[in-house]
Design goal:
With 348 residues, the protein is an alpha/beta fold. Helix content is 45%, strand content 11%. It has one domain (1-348): 2-enoyl-CoA Hydratase, Chain A, domain 1 (Alpha-Beta Complex). The protein has 16 helices and nine strands. The strands form two sheets. It has a six-stranded mixed β-sheet with strand order 1-2-3-5-7-9, sandwiched between helices. It has a three-stranded parallel β-sheet with strand order 4-6-8. Helix 2 packs across helix 15 (302-312), helix 3 packs antiparallel against helix 14 (283-297) and helix 11 packs antiparallel against helix 12 (250-261). It is globular. It starts with 6 loop residues before the first strand and ends in a 13-residue tail after the last helix. It comes from Kaistia dalseonensis.
Length: 348
């Protein structure tokens, strides 16, 4: 019996429909899914019969990330799996620059690679159970897929907090931060697709199905402590401030410090430098920087160790190398920001 396709494409009226179809894997993006999606977007971009693209996920998640286990296995078996990330980043850029409305209907988890195929589109409609996170520092990687462009532009220092602590943000926080553009009940998603299929005005089609204002769950209340703690200094400095926090935010600070300390020290230092650099970069330069960092990390130790601990052996006990922030070599960090030996990232 033939297995279900990992990704489905359809047309409905004026809409090109994409359905991520790996529900058991929380719709994790495989290389084939990336390439097929890029191919269809290129066709629909130039097709006058298509006025809008709609992307959604089957099951209980939109997309929980890229298929990092496949990248792990490819890297262990042979050359660096940099080609997967290069083509994924090109897809992210194609979405950012897509000339027609691109509507992501997000319910459940949107993490890692899922952010790259949703948050760069023109319309990001989040349902009540949507949860955003960039958890890559926990597997020895870094916030990629152009997410640094978003994280660097979140209110105050909340993007840096989200990057270092791999914080999970609900729908209200995502609206507050600019990750989501609209809120609607998941029960309305089918009707939204029908409305979008009828014309090219996505704002008008969405309007009848949207919620009113949705308050942030955590970020507004935490704005001041996040700004004070994450605004300047090294990762060690940020951790010291978290350790010293007193008053009503002390429990949050203790949890956040513990979350950060569980991450790869190398990844934390890279992410801090990356997000701060992204504040002065445009999107294409952010995605170019992603490729530079990924090319170096994929030749290192912590990504493979992080994936092993989280997804292969599942012992949740990664042995980072180095395993302390004080042992991270600044020269090694700087090397992640230079042009790779095989040349810089280019867009078609």
């Amino acid at each position: 019996m033939a297995s279900e396709p990992e990704i489905l494409f359809d047309r409905k009226g004026r809409a090109g429909l994409v359905t991520l179809n790996r529900p058991k894997a929380l719709n994790a993006l495989s290389y084939d899914m990336v390439m097929l999606m890029a191919e269809h977007l290129a066709i629909w971009r130039d097709d006058p019969a298509i006025g809008v693209v709609v992307v959604r996920g089957a099951g209980r998640a939109f997309c929980a990330g890229g298929d990092v286990r496949a990248a792990y296995e490819a890297g262990r078996a042979g050359p660096s799996p940099a080609a997967f990330f290069r083509d994924e980043y090109r897809l992210n850029a194609a979405i950012k620059h897509f000339p027609k409305p691109y509507v992501a209907l997000v319910d459940g988890f949107v993490m890692g690679g899922g952010v790259g195929i949703s948050a760069h589109g023109s319309h990001r409609v989040f349902a009540e159970n949507a949860v955003f996170s960039m958890p890559e520092t926990g597997i020895g990687f870094f916030p990629d897929v152009g997410s640094s462009y978003l994280l660097a532009r979140m209110p105050g220092e909340s993007g840096l907090y989200a990057a270092l602590a791999a914080a999970r943000l609900g729908r209200g926080d995502c609206l507050h931060a600019g990750i989501a553009t609209h809120a609607a009940p998941a029960a309305n998603f089918d009707a939204i697709v029908d409305a979008l299929a009828e014309g090219d005005d996505a704002d008008r089609a969405l309007a009848p199905f949207l919620h009113g204002p949705v308050a942030p769950e955590t970020l507004r209340e935490l704005n001041d402590p996040i700004a004070a703690i994450f605004g300047t200094g090294t990762v060690e400095t940020i951790l010291s401030r978290l350790d010293e926090a007193e008053g009503p935010h002390a429990p949050w600070a203790e949890r956040t410090a513990a979350d950060i300390r569980a991450k790869s020290p190398t990844s934390l230092v890279i992410a801090l430098k990356q997000i701060r650099a992204a504040r002065t970069l445009d999107f294409d330069d952010c995605i170019r920087l992603d490729y530079r960092i990924a090319s170096q990390i994929l030749d290192g130790h912590d990504f493979y160790e992080g994936v092993r601990a989280a997804l292969v052996d599942k012992d949740k006990a990664p042995r980072w190398r180095p395993d302390t922030l004080s042992a991270v070599d600044p020269r090694v960090i700087e090397a992640h920001f230079g042009v790779p030996s095989d040349g810089d990232f280019t867009l078609p």
